[in-house]
Amino acid sequence: MSGIGPVESVDSSEANGSYEVIGGDSPRPTDRWHTLPPRTRRAVLAAGTVAVVAVGVVLLPPRPQADPAPPVPWPANITEWRYTGLAQTTDTPTTTGFFRFAVTVDSGPPVAVRVIGAAFDGLIAQAVPDPSFTVRAGTTRRVTVEISVSDCSGLPLNADLAFLDVTLRNTRAIQSHSFIFGSAYSKDLSQLLHRACGTTNARPGPRPSGSAGSQNVDRG
User: Fold this and answer.
1) Contact 218, 181 (CB under 8 A)
2) Would you say residue 105 has pLDDT above 70?
3) pTM for this one?
């Protein structure tokens, strides 16, 4: 045929190795991902989840620390005594009297209380019927204190600003403390001293001052 040369055969190996590829895509990561076995893909996903959680924990802001708990108060600072009057009255000579008090604990843990003295040497004092008792925070307990005269020789007949010596105990400390009461308690205690020691040589004696931990709790 005119103008047309012979048809030449094409070597398949040459064609596969020498032609130029235009616009071909490079391999994508997803192509390899889909070729992985299902078990391998699950393992990779699990590892990635753990890594993300770990990073999140590291990046979380630290939690603010709670304020430290306030210290337990000293028992003497939260315990109040108030004199409420005689438990019984009598005009006959006697060496024992019964006096009523109200004991309140304002806050903190419970306070164990024990009466150990009554102002002067020669007097014995204890709460009855229980020598020791406990008062919880926010409560008031009514107690009776029995005071007995054991020796008149060292007692003044007129007890001015008489007080009670007690021990107070909570989870912080055990304290010895003196609660000083005003005229009402002093008058009633003086009546007991006159009945018990009026015919003896009782001394006038100095005015009691209480211990270093004294607290005037009743000015009535």
Assistant:
1) yes
2) yes
3) 0.62
- Give the Cα separation of 114 and 126 in Å (integer): 8
Distance from C-alpha of 175 to C-alpha of 74, rounded to nearest angstrom: 8
Q: What is the DSSP letter of 78?
A: H
Is 27 in a helix, a strand, or coil? coil
**Helical residues (DSSP H) of 25-117, grouped into ranges:** 29-35, 38-59, 75-78
Residue 52 phi, psi (nearest 5): -65, -45
**What's the distance, CA 41 to chain centroid?**
55
Q: What is the mean pLDDT of the chain?
A: 77
Quick one: the chain helix, strand, coil %, rounded to 5?
A: 25, 30, 45
Question: What residues are paired with 146 via a beta bridge?
Answer: 98, 126
And the tokens for 52? 């993300």
41 pLDDT band (50/70/90 cuts)? low
Q: How far, in Å, CA of 28 to CA of 185, rounded?
A: 99
The SS3 of residue 181 is strand
Average confidence (pLDDT) over 203-215: 46
Q: Using omega within 30 degrees of 0 as the cis cutoff, is the peptide bond preceding 38 cis?
A: no
